[in-house]
Write a structure and sequence with these properties.
about 375 residues; alpha/beta; Rossmann fold; six-stranded parallel sheet; 15 helices; about 15% strand; UDP_glucos_trans; Glycosyltransferase; EryCIII-like_C; Glycosyltransferase_28
Length: about 375
């Protein structure tokens, strides 16, 4: 059996794909450790994983530390790279699996000749433009982290997105396995709108959520709102027919949902589509993948996109269309069928295993530094 070291960061939706792969590897008899931000230790150890405490990495907590400049520093953090090498010196691993945003860790692994895979948990289209092609990519290059060389040097780039909405670019070491999206059979019931924005600490979410709640007035549907850890449910003014909770699990709400409102995070959007639910995307960050995700869903006919500064009327018109026009449900069901036909966790775990057992793994061998 093999040993794996996952390098992650406290970003919310980036963590479930990593933990799902890790659980599958453990189920197959392998050992898995996680290196991440200190704010992640409690959740990861509670999930049964060994956590390597960082000593050199920048401190970061997604519930309170979000600023564009802060994010630039986190993704380029050489301290996480030092912690990676220290973790391997203390206990070697057969393969390191690095989150696709952690370029400081990737650079350290590449320069040290460590065999590593990159876990890509967002649209490849957004990754190429928003990360590598935008201010983030420029910042990484100015810090001499050579992001493209880091990606080219990976033994495998595991892309966990759906080809129907995010066609993979040509790359010899890239394997697209589909999205992580658990689903349950549909449940019949009254029309229901599920509203949930990010667990990440984006500014202004309370105001956006309030306008969304107000927009549902007069619509023929019950409304379930999940505020997440950064918005106090008491700060929202609800009305009869609207339930506001701190947390609602997708498994409890999406099987009976008629429409989902999300910020366009990859995980929540795919979860909605996996349940054949049309999606209203309200992007919260133009530098993340939210806008690209929203456009792709709109192009597929499976949802609508309204800017975060949209009015109550804009939100109401979009939600009304999702509830009343059968074409949105039909398009969402087509994508849902495609998602359910994938086995992202099983195929992804097999690809990672193949890199450690001498079998012919997808992609090409890691380049030497």
């Amino acid at each position: 059996m093999s040993g794996f070291l996952f390098v992650t960061w406290d970003g919310g939706g980036n963590v479930p794909p990593a933990t799902a792969l890790a659980r599958e590897l453990v189920r197959r008899g392998h050992t898995v450790r996680f290196l991440g931000h200190a704010s992640q230790e409690q959740a990861l150890t509670a999930a049964g994983f060994t956590f390597v405490r960082p000593r050199h990495a920048r401190r970061f907590d997604s519930t309170r530390d979000y600023t564009p400049l802060r994010m630039l520093g986190v993704f380029a953090d050489a301290g996480m790279g030092r912690d990676l090498l220290d973790a391997l010196a203390a206990e070697p691993a057969d393969l390191v699996v690095v989150d696709s945003f952690m370029f400081g860790a990737m650079d350290a692994a590449r320069r040290a000749g460590v065999r590593y895979a990159v876990l890509e948990h967002m649209y490849a289209a957004a990754y190429r433009t928003g990360i590598l092609g935008g201010p983030m990519g420029l910042n990484l290059r100015l810090r001499r982290l050579a992001p493209q060389r880091a990606l080219d040097g990976a033994a495998l780039r595991l892309l966990m997105t759906l080809a129907d909405v995010d066609p993979a670019p040509a790359a010899a070491n890239l394997l697209q396995v589909g999205p992580l999206a658990a689903w349950s059979p549909r449940v019949a019931g009254d029309p229901t709108i599920v509203v949930g924005l990010s667990t990440f600490g984006y500014p202004g979410m309370t105001r956006v959520l309030q306008r969304l709640v107000d927009a549902t007035e007069g619509l023929p549907a019950r409304v379930l709102v999940s505020t997440g850890p950064n918005v106090d449910p008491a700060d929202l003014t609800a009305r009869p027919g609207v339930e506001v909770h701190r947390w609602l699990a997708h498994a409890d709400t999406l099987p009976g949902a008629s429409a989902l409102v999300t910020h366009g995070g990859h995980g929540s959007t795919m979860a909605g589509l996996a349940h054949d639910v049309p999606v209203l995307v309200v992007p919260l960050d133009g530098k993340a993948d939210h806008v690209v995700v929203g456009r792709s869903i709109e192009s597929a006919g499976a949802g609508r996109t309204v800017p975060r500064r949209g009015s109550t009327g804009d939100f109401r018109a979009a939600l009304s269309a999702l509830l009343e026009q059968p074409s949105y449900r039909a398009a969402a069901a087509r994508l849902g069928t495609a998602i359910r036909a994938t086995d992202a966790v099983g195929d992804g775990a097999s690809a990672l295993e193949a890199l450690t057992d001498g079998a012919a793994a997808p992609g090409r061998p890691a380049a030497r530094p």
